[in-house]
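Proteins fold reproducibly. Next comes an illustrative record:
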Amino acid sequence: MKTNRMFEIVMILLNEGEVKAKDLAERFNCTTKTIYRDVEYIKDSGIPIISELGRNGGFKLGAGFSKNNKNLSLKEQHTIIKALKDHGRLPEEQLDEIMATIEGLFKDDGIDWIDVGLGDPKVNENFIIIKNAIYQGDTLEIKDNDRLLEIRPEQILIREDGIYVKYLELDKKKMRDIQINYLEIKKD
């Protein structure tokens, strides 16, 4: 099954670091051409795979991705899950089973490792919305001077003068930060 093979290719790269197309083809009982197509699809999904040509060439994950799935950052986990889920070529009937398998590999112990109680309900609510968006790799819409901006929150910053969110403003591809008590998040 193509989808399972692509998922397994990602996992092999995470665990082994580098692998040759010939070795993957033997593992999956398919042609190297099929492996190259799968790797292109995975790359198109947003997972950075480097292809090295030549006799000693092969595939490896791009910079910034861990080589062992136990050391994946939360952002890397969500990138893999979201990329394979959202790219749109996966048959709907396979998606739930595959996503359950992937999420099971990365599932944490269920402990919510950070929470706030800052006295201002708006700040608490904003903090939780931002934290969840970072966990899930979601975008948010915020109001800025009577304009709605689509942002991708990247990091919560705790500074001496307050709590900030560092975010990517999607239309301008620009990183900014704002104190969360000044943030107006559009709710659906």
In short: The longest helix spans residues 121-136. The chain has a mean pLDDT of 76. The chain has two domains: 2-106, 121-185.
